[in-house]
Automatic annotation (TrEMBL):
SUPFAM superfamilies assigned: Protease propeptides/inhibitors, Subtilisin-like
Organism: Astatotilapia calliptera (Eastern happy)
Transmembrane regions: none
Taxonomic lineage: Eukaryota, Metazoa, Chordata, Craniata, Vertebrata
Protein name: Tripeptidyl-peptidase 1
Gene Ontology biological-process entries: central nervous system development; proteolysis
Length: 547
């Protein structure tokens, strides 16, 4: 029996969390009869064909452009082999685990079992309860293993190690201590990005969504108040059409309020959904639950904006690679996924005496559109934009640079070679991000019925870009064209056309002698701080309305 188990497969196969972060306080050891819910990610088939299909339906020069797949077609492409299903089911049943649910694509199993059974199933695991900010989670404090003949059929097991990261920093930063500051409102955004009062949604089959994972909730009363204050100049909706999941009680979260208020005021008059998933069990992972939902719902909004991320180095390559496949599954269906680039600039990882920049995931995924942040050059006027120093950006240490961006990124690296940080700080051949940007500084938000200024972060810029893409989808649907879907191949072929190029400013990096707190700097055309720049809506609409 000892030879049958492969010890500590976690390091190569599953999550790379070796210790519980300090902000999570240990509460107690989970009792043997307490129920857990674990998620088993079964190996998929034809992932290379899925990637090729995504390339073809997303490339405007391809004859298959816009010919998206249905969920059933995606399922028939990627569903696990009969052998994989048999091996995993037999393994679970041999431990008496029969309370399992699958999804339409059959590549995830969610099983309920006692903690005692889970620890027998996954030798090495030890389940404990932890608490942060009043929220409880159950996770294993130690690595685990799976049988040798099973691990070839699994990508990872969810619900054991990964803890939600802290939310993005939406600190109210007041740059001017005295005097009037403009602040960003829907009217300011519409002025800067050239949206008129007529630029609102009108078709029935269009929808957009935001997703929340960090115990964040919006209040319908806040949304209504926000629209009453700031939405008078354009047709809009004051209610979310659908909440998927359970809205928690208590105070509204600033993150959730920001996302909902700005996707609905930019993508105005478009049906909006909110995915909110605190998890039914303490052992669930909300981000993973959302990904599974996408693979289990035939009808979904066309644009999703997500303000959520984690350090690449805190996750295993196996986990991120599988999540990338989930992003591809959404993209081939015509769904646009937008992620905030993060609020830590280039980031910094301290490795002994050496520092390196610290990329964030999913911002570094080649299969999503990542949105960075900008500020007004003159905070008292609607002027041109410069870099917001918090804007996340850089180069993945895990994923290679996708073909759609090699020309743009290599041009940047060549043009600014003399002023780049030392090569030891970043991976010049990695997926570079962000792809584009929008204002991320000094937003007005209504939260708990009170208008609050000075809210900042790429959590603000992402729903703004998402709302504009929803408006473009609206116009495409009126012309009988398909949804934009995965935008990046088309975005990079525009070569900066229809965007305001941001060429001033740098973002944060490591605070050391080598780079002295500075990461990368903006430059003409694409750069790893603001991507291609910010949207000039009418021009972007025009170029994206051609089929």
């Amino acid at each position: 029996v000892i030879n049958y188990w492969v010890p500590c497969l976690l390091i190569s196969l599953l999550y790379q969390v070796s210790q519980i972060p300090q902000e999570w306080a240990h509460v107690d050891r989970v009792g043997p009869t307490e129920e857990l819910e674990l998620t088993f990610a079964l190996k998929q088939q034809n992932v290379h064909l899925l990637e090729e299909k995504l390339r073809l339906v997303s490339d405007p020069d391809s004859v298959q452009y816009g010919k998206h797949l249905s969920l059933e077609e995606v399922a028939s492409l990627v569903r696990p082999s009969d052998l994989t299903e048999k091996v995993v089911h037999r393994w679970l049943q041999s431990h008496g685990i029969t309370n399992c649910l699958t999804i339409r694509t059959q590549d995830f199993l969610q099983c309920t079992m006692t903690a005692e059974t889970a620890e027998r199933l996954l030798p090495g695991s030890r389940f404990h309860r932890y608490m942060r900010d009043g929220h409880y989670l159950v996770r294993s404090s130690a690595p685990y293993s799976v049988p040798d003949d099973v691990h070839h059929h699994l990508d990872f097991v969810g619900g054991l190690h990964r803890l939600p990261p802290k939310g993005l920093d939406l600190s109210k930063k007041q740059k001017s201590k005295a005097g009037f500051h403009l602040g960003v409102t829907p009217a300011v955004l519409r002025t800067r990005y050239n949206l008129t009062s007529a630029d609102v949604g009108s078709v029935q089959n269009n929808s957009q969504a935001v997703a929340q994972f960090l115990e964040q909730y919006y209040h319908p009363a806040d949304l209504a108040e926000f629209m009453a204050m700031f939405g008078g100049a354009f047709q809009h909706r004051s209610e979310v059409d659908r909440v998927v999941g359970t809205q928690g009680g208590g105070k509204a979260g600033i993150e959730a309020s920001l996302d909902v208020e700005y996707i609905m005021s930019t993508g105005a008059n478009i049906s909006t959904w909110v995915f909110t998933n605190p998890g039914r069990h303490e052992s669930q992972e909300p981000f993973l639950q959302w990904m599974i939902l996408l693979s289990n719902m035939t009808d979904l909004p066309w644009v999703h904006t997500i303000s959520y991320g984690d350090d690449e180095d805190s996750l295993s390559a196996a986990y991120m690679t599988r999540i990338n496949t989930e992003f591809m599954k959404a993209g081939v269906r015509g769904i646009s996924l937008l992620f905030a680039s993060g609020d830590s600039g280039a980031g910094c990882r301290h490795l002994g005496k050496e520092n390196t920049f610290r990329p964030s995931f999913p911002a570094s995924s080649p299969y999503v559109t990542t949105v960075g942040g900008t500020s007004f050059k003159n905070p008292y006027k609607v002027t041109y934009e410069v870099t917001d120093s918090i804007s996340g950006g850089g180069f993945s240490n895990i994923f290679k640079m996708p073909d759609y961006q090699t020309t743009a990124v290599n041009s940047y690296l060549k043009t600014v070679a003399a002023s780049l940080p030392p090569k030891s700080y970043f991976n010049t051949s990695g997926r570079a991000y962000p792809d584009m940007a929008a204002l991320s500084d000094n937003y007005w938000v209504v939260i708990n019925r009170v208008p609050v200024p000075w809210v900042s972060g790429t959590s603000a810029s992402t729903p703004v870009v998402g709302g504009m893409l929803s408006l473009i989808n609206d116009q495409r649907f009126m012309k009988g064209l398909p949804a934009l879907g995965f935008l990046n191949p088309r975005l990079y072929k525009l070569n900066g056309k229809a965007l305001f190029d941001v060429t001033e400013g740098c973002h944060y990096g490591c605070l050391d002698e080598q780079v002295q707190g500075q990461g990368f700097c903006a430059a003409p055309s694409w750069d790893p701080v603001t991507g291609w720049g910010t949207p000039n809506y009418p021009a972007l609409l025009a170029v994206l309305l051609s089929d």
